[in-house]
Amino acid sequence: MTKIAGAGVVVTGGGNGIGRAIARKMAAGGARVVVNDLDGDAAAAVAREIDGYAVSGDAASEAGVRELIAAARGHLGTIDVYCANAGIGIRGGPEAPDEHWLRAWDVNLMAHVRASRELLPGWLERGSGTFVITASAAGLLTMLGSAPYSVTKHAAVAYAEWLAATYLHRGIAVHCICPQGVRTQMLARSGAAGDAVLQRTAIEPEDVADALWDAMAVGRFLVLPHQEVHDYYVRRATDTDRWLAGMRKLQQQIERAVSGPAS
Ligand SMILES: NC(=O)c1ccc[n+]([C@@H]2O[C@H](COP(=O)([O-])OP(=O)(O)OC[C@H]3O[C@@H](n4cnc5c(N)ncnc54)[C@H](O)[C@@H]3O)[C@@H](O)[C@H]2O)c1
Known about the structure:
The structure is a single chain. By secondary structure, the protein is an alpha/beta fold. The protein has helices at residues 17-28, 40-50, 62-76, 98-126, 147-167, 185-188, 191-198, 205-218, 228-238, 240-259, and strands at residues 8-11, 32-37, 53-56, 81-84, 129-134, 172-177, 222-223. A 7-stranded parallel beta sheet has the order 3-2-1-4-5-6-7, with helices on both faces. α3 runs parallel beside α4 (98-126) and α7 (191-198) crosses α10. It starts with 7 loop residues before the first strand and ends with a helix. The model has no long low-confidence stretch (mean pLDDT 95).
């Protein structure tokens, strides 16, 4: 039940894709928006368009998060809503180098821990604040071909749940966004698994921003822009072997697509 009109909102990774759509939606609802992105030009372009304020930089590292929040507070006075949206898609399995696993861990999870570490003391003191995490359906299910992504998005969902369970009664709202495919540059780079699993049902970034808006209006934690994810999530929990059998078929389908038609 977050009030957006007049609110001070920060969106990380707001220069493109889902973050840009969220920044636009919040600004259209009357929020004052700080747009962060590693890509300073992209952040500046979105900020110009929505009459917001751009802060370029890394929204994941400890120093980057601290600098972003200080700059946002300097501009907004108070941060009411923090959309921890920046994320990276890292492909591979155990063979992916540690460096890739650790970067996924940093951006897809620790960014949220570090931002909430900065924000919670003030929010708890005043008894309000809204923390939004853009996780993924991969955080409820899995993303074939991308173990570091799946694992760190599960961690992001777990952290969002923990925040909600711990602080809801103290006035903190938490929303966790879990879409499947969304037509952004990340989806375009997702390779054979993305083509086989995500493209057919992909939605627009604006659909994700609308779903978040609706969830904020009623105080719903889980934001599922793809309704079918609800059913997959139930199946995974209640009949895990059947769910895994379905995933195995998809994996085989991807392997056939990669190797091409048999000659
Ligand atoms: N596109 C999809 O199909 C999809 C599906 C589910 C979840 N998601 C999640 O949605 C979020 C947004 O993804 P998107 O599809 O809009 O991707 P995108 O690549 O289009 O945009 C992500 C933006 O985040 C920025 N960014 C990356 N790391 C950053 C960092 N450390 N600090 C600041 N900015 C950073 C990038 O420069 C980019 O502008 C991610 O968390 C992603 O995992 C995407």
